[in-house]
């Protein structure tokens, strides 16, 4: 800071980390409404498919077991009858024909044969029990004989034991790969349908969200929604939103017109009063008090105009060092105020130089008015900044008494004043509200916190200018 400053100024380090900045505490990123809707629809459809599959298999189980047992029993009975009623020469030809045409193999069952029973699942055990009931208790159903896999059925012909080998698919359910193919196809179609339904449901909400963001930025022309949609509920919402946007646009225009007239309508009579006071009032003390009252009215008008300033502005590259120096210079000379800064050289942010200077001026005035040490009567203010990722974190703190924790969120409300220790009769209750609105207009964030070493700290997160 040059010698021209009218405020005691030092360049000693000031810590930015005396209190965890609430600006870095971002809420967790939630799941979008599209994916949430898609997930629930997909879960419902997949659950329905699985329930249908289990129901189908349960209903299919008993009939398939009975059908398989009847077919195998008929096959064994027909083979037995054919062998019994054929002579020796025809029997050999019949066995060859059954093997080549029907895939049936009939062989004698030796006492030394080793086999493994066909009891791999409930269906095979049920079929084996039904075959034993129809063909006799000595019937065997095996899945492997002497190391040869297949569907082996042991039966007797005139007391002689035989094996009948047939295709295992006669007893098994539909192949697992077939079920997987059908299940995969149904799941794919269901998920595709769920995605289309979720997109169809969320499309109006996405458009509404975009329009609301345009209204928030003050672009009322780009916030119009389609009022001719087929869905009656969406049409009513769109019509109501458009009417609201139109009324907000009209209010914005009226506010701009009102602001244009306030300066002339109020400041001209105040200027005449000031002139009349200087010329007509002989008492110097009375003249000084009247001039101070007029200056206070002018300051209050400035506060109202700052708060009612339009929300949109075009950000540009701004030197944070120059803005802070200009703000310190503008607050005037106070021998009991000491300001310490720790801002890296060439720190630049995106914003408006005039708005940003007004922000720091308001914060400095607030700290000078309310942050005085009650014991020493001295006001110490620390300003520090540092770059972090694509932002610049700024902290301005005093060493006063601070405020009650429950009042922190209310300090940025318009016309709100804290406790008596931080209240002056000349305040309008708009200073911190103006700061919050101005920082938001520049794409930043603003928060207040009690410093861990005493006093109130103002945290700002501004957009870093690209180098």
Describe what this molecule looks like in 3D.
The model is unreliable at 1-21 and 420-425 (pLDDT under 50). β4 and β5 (148-157) form a beta hairpin. α5 (232-280) runs antiparallel to α6, α7 crosses α8 (353-370) and α8 (353-370) runs antiparallel to α9. The chain starts with 8 loop residues before the first strand and ends with a strand. With 467 residues, the protein is an alpha+beta fold. The longest helix is centred in the N-terminal third of the chain and has 52 residues, at 33-84. 50% of the residues lie in helices and 17% in strands. The chain is built from nine helices and 13 strands. The strands form three sheets. It has a six-stranded mixed sheet with strand order 1-8-10-11-13-12. The chain has a five-stranded antiparallel sheet with strand order 2-6-5-4-3. Strands 7-9 form a two-stranded antiparallel sheet.
Radius of gyration: 44 Å
Task: Name the strands of the widest sheet in spatial order.
Answer: 1-8-10-11-13-12
Shape: rod-shaped
How far apart lie the N and C ends? Answer: 24 Å
Number of helices: 9
Structural class: alpha+beta
How would you describe this structure in keywords?
467 residues, alpha+beta, five-stranded antiparallel β-sheet, 9 helices, rod-shaped
Topology:
Blueprint: E1 9-10, H1 33-84, H2 88-101, E2 105-108, E3 115-117, H3 122-135, E4 140-145, E5 148-157, E6 160-166, H4 176-216, H5 232-280, H6 284-307, E7 316-319, H7 320-330, E8 337-342, E9 348-351, H8 353-370, E10 379-388, E11 391-398, H9 431-441, E12 445-450, E13 456-463
Parallel strand pairs: 1-8, 8-10
Antiparallel strand pairs: 2-6, 3-4, 4-5, 5-6, 7-9, 10-11, 11-13, 12-13
